[in-house]
Amino acid sequence: LDRNLAYGTGLNGILKEDGCVFHHCGHYIAYGDGGLKGMTFAMYALNGSAFAVSQQAYENVRNVLQTLRFQCHGTNVPVVFAGRHPHGKMVISAENYKYFALCAMERGDREAVRWYCELSGESTDEVSEKLFEWYKNHGNVKSDSICVEGNHSYPMACACVHRRENFMAVAKGYSRYLWGSEI
């Protein structure tokens, strides 16, 4: 699992150092979100055992989840990152953040637990209640979820995301190496 959670080089691999998630040799959030469901659940299932992922693998997945938070408005995926799903209704799954938050809780990573609490908005089950309660009892971390500000470039996606307050602009380029859509 650690090898699968290592950063890939060039157009190969799934996770990239700039936080992008790849499928079909491109930053593809639709498939990346599905892949993260398996990754984060496996991390949770193995957490605390002899088969738990290494700190580096944990950090790699954390980087991707943090990047997706910046690239998306809440759970809404910008159309430019939607690939063959350009209907403007694509969302990332808060479940990925839930399972990762369970691992983060064990590691004392309050910020990653906060990501789930803010994306889900409310506790919906016993696990959510446990995460919300743990977060509340371990001190709040400065919130920047929806109002993340800044400008980040993502070379592996050939994209730039600019955010301030509740405004977000995304510019994405294409080349003979980076496609615009799977279709």
Residues in helix, %: 25-40%
Ends: how far apart?
31 Å
Number of strands: 5
Please tally the helical runs, counting DSSP H or I stretches of 4 or more residues. 5
Category by helix and strand content = alpha+beta
Largest sheet: 3 strands, antiparallel
Q: How would the global form be characterised?
A: globular
- The main sheet orders its strands as 3-4-5
Question: Could you characterize what this model shows?
Answer:
It is a single chain. The protein is α+β, with helices and mostly antiparallel strands and 183 residues long. It is built from five helices and five strands. The protein has helices at 29-46, 55-71, 94-107, 110-120, 126-137, and strands at 22-23, 26-27, 150-154, 159-164, 167-172. Helix 1 runs parallel beside helix 3 (94-107).
Describe the protein's topology.
Blueprint: E1 22-23, E2 26-27, H1 29-46, H2 55-71, H3 94-107, H4 110-120, H5 126-137, E3 150-154, E4 159-164, E5 167-172
Antiparallel strand pairs: 1-2, 3-4, 4-5
Helix pairs in contact: 1-3, 3-4, 3-5, 4-5
